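Handout, section B. The chain below has 402 residues.
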Amino acid sequence: MAPPNAFSRRTLLAGAAVVTLVGCASEPSDSDDPTAGAGSGTPVSPSAASTVAPTVQVTAEHGFDAMWPQDILDIQVSGGTVSKVTVTSADGGDVPGTLTGAQWKPERNFLVRATYTITVEAENESGVAFPTTVSATTIDPEFVTEVDFRYADGQIGNGMPVWVRFDMSVTDEQRAAIEKTATITTVPAQEGSWGWMDDTTLAWRPRDYWQAGSTAHVEVKAAGLPAADTWVLADAAADYQFGDLRVLKTDIDNHSLTCLRNGNVDAVIPVSLGKPGDETMTGTKLIMEKEYETIMDSESYGVDNESADGYKVTVYWNQRITWSGEYFHAAPWADAYHGNTNVSHGCTGMTTDNATWLYNWTQIGDPAEFTGTSAKGSVPAWDTYGCWTYDWETWKTLSAVA
């Protein structure tokens, strides 16, 4: 299928449909015929003229059997003028639109896989209105783009952005139109901005972490808009709920993890971080996944687990903070180093008791800030849920309508 913004016609999508309709009018009897018994050129009486219906011709570029969402209705009238156009969906709802000259355009695109009834009222020269009606069915593409939301419908950490996910890539040219349909209501009100994390993810984050107890309602009314080489199938909405503001502050050089809830210190945990050559990255990461038990294997990043620097070990109380493999987790084999020496392969290790406490204290989406010295530098956005890897002014530039 051709891209939805293409103007060329395809064999699959027939050329513009032309529907010529004459408005309803009662058939006059012979005795009512104003021309009966009259010679050529005899004027039609005003009362008879009022029964003459205009001829209405309605067209759509791609036809009424497979109309495209962005099609505009062209209406030509002979013997009168258009006074009203009404378009209704299959559920009986009116479709808002504007009639300009001979064209009617919906306020927003038609939906795909939908049926509409189009009624055109045209007045004849005597001012009598005649309705004419036609049915239209929009294209049924093989593929469509659907919208969903990550981490909605449950309480999450106060660093997590609102995630709008598209299951097909959205091109640079399509993003602004889609983003303009996205709205968010936060309680309490907080300054924030949309930003495109990648070609399938539109995210909204506040300027600072979500305030404790915040809620957010988000709507994306992009149905019928082009996305990738097809269209968005339906509108979508979701609700987000945030709890206490938990922030994990890790000092790489001082080997400590300070856990704050709503600004108050709940715990300070001795930790060991990445050793030279395997340094832990600085910057703000988010808790992405929680796994009680996992097997960590150096061969996952190309180091033979039988080599001097290799390993394959079952690890407990794991909380992922980067895709490349940084975690908070229990490291009982390194208890002698917690709080004084960095000996890990990049993870933040601690005693089993502390790892258990931390696992139960956090939520998915809690921000984890790492400061100190690291040869690896700051974590890149792609390696975590990276909306906080940008400062506020840079984040705003990721909006397609900024």
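Note. Residues 64 and 136 are 4 Å apart (CA to CA). Compare this with the example in section A.
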